[in-house]
Amino acid sequence: MAGVDWVSLLHYMGAAVAAGVVDSFDHEMEIYFEEAEKTKSDGELFKQKRLANNYSREQAANEIGVSCYAVRIYEKGLSVSKQMHEKFDNWQPVQIDFMAFIEKYKLRQKDLAQIVGVDPSMIWAWKNGKYKIPVYAKRALKNWENERIIEERSLTNE
What we know:
The protein has helices at 6-19, 27-38, 42-52, 57-64, 68-75, 82-90, 98-105, 109-116, 120-127, 135-157. The protein folds into three domains: 6-38, no CATH class; 42-90, lambda repressor-like DNA-binding domains (434 Repressor (Amino-terminal Domain)); 98-157, 434 Repressor (Amino-terminal Domain), CATH 1.10.260. It starts with 5 loop residues before the first helix and ends with a helix. It is an all-alpha fold.
């Protein structure tokens, strides 16, 4: 049954049982619903990963190198090219432990603010959990760290 929104159907059937319109589900149908829930599409899994890392569609699209529309299509489970599918599969959101980063590089609030391009008060707010650290800030810190690693390597090779 391609094209069936199983979640909506399950919700509808559950409501019908609760209202007493139907006595119960057919046992085979219950098993089918459970299996459908277990097998999420690549697009659904991508969306979960994107949301779990606080990425908007636009932010994910910019990092992957595709349009927001392409992200929306992929998340809906619609067909995309093999090349685009690989881009989505290979995408890794920026992971950075803010407090560990500060400790590792012994950076002051002022230094961090300069790296990220924000007011130092925003660094304080992130450190104290007043706001979530946005993706652009994580990306800036990661880029700074990568540049530092490259610089250190070039100095040791001389």
